[in-house]
């Protein structure tokens, strides 16, 4: 998905405070899987239990202030970063190959353009539970991820998938959005979360679900911030929002005005990597487990389950659901 989508993407190498963790091995594995355009932006100081902070590789002075072996490694990764940025721009690569040093402005602007075009995927590192490296990731998202008006036109098709459609990201265009997740809220029930690519959507109106060939009515629109749900009257291009209690809509569906129908590519989900079997003690337990699994499956498209009479096996992309 990372290499095919050509969309701005960041990676975060987590749990570097844990035993046997290795930044170098993870970078090598990521680049082997997804390509050399996955470039480190931060470098860890310390290993495992001594891991204490990260250094911004875009900050030359910060890198040069490091001591010992870490300095040599950080300088190596910084050089990889600059080379990867230069390779995405003819003027920059000419200057780089000519032995000239790229200015800080050229590096920052070059990275912005490369991220926008999906030609570079910044890699960050840290420990989420200890808050190490998280601030650097958030700041980079603000700094480098393009605003909705800066992204390239969205590629879609006619509802039957035969004719390509190029859709401009603008609040002035007809409404178009895509659902990427659903969650079960204990107070309002199922929340459908979607990204608005163009146009706007008012509360207490509705839209057309192309995938299900169905009209859906909505009530309130929410902006989500952790567990907080802020009610808003309207969302527009670039917003991520949620609505409750939709009857037909699920993850991956395209939402739009019925007068201008289009369809976005279905979101490709990774295949499950872990399998387990469950053996309920009683028939009543089995029914309760299947109800819980159904809720998990509706929230996470990578979570697959079924009632296999021989194995009673369920599958998941990770172990959180299991």
From TrEMBL:
It holds the Pfam family GTP_EFTU. This is Tr-type G domain-containing protein. GO terms for biological process: ribosome disassembly. InterPro entries: EF-G-like_DII (IPR053905), EFG_II (IPR041095), EFG_III/V (IPR035647), P-loop_NTPase (IPR027417), T_Tr_GTP-bd_dom (IPR000795), Transl_B-barrel_sf (IPR009000). One of its GO terms (molecular function) is GTPase activity. It comes from marine sediment metagenome. Residues 5-147 form the Tr-type G domain. Residues 174-257 form the Elongation factor G-like domain. Keywords: GTP-binding, Nucleotide-binding. Transmembrane segments: none annotated. Residues 269-312 form the Elongation Factor G domain. The keyword Zinc does not apply. PANTHER family: ELONGATION FACTOR G-LIKE PROTEIN, TRANSLATION ELONGATION FACTOR G-RELATED. The lineage of its organism: unclassified sequences, metagenomes, ecological metagenomes.
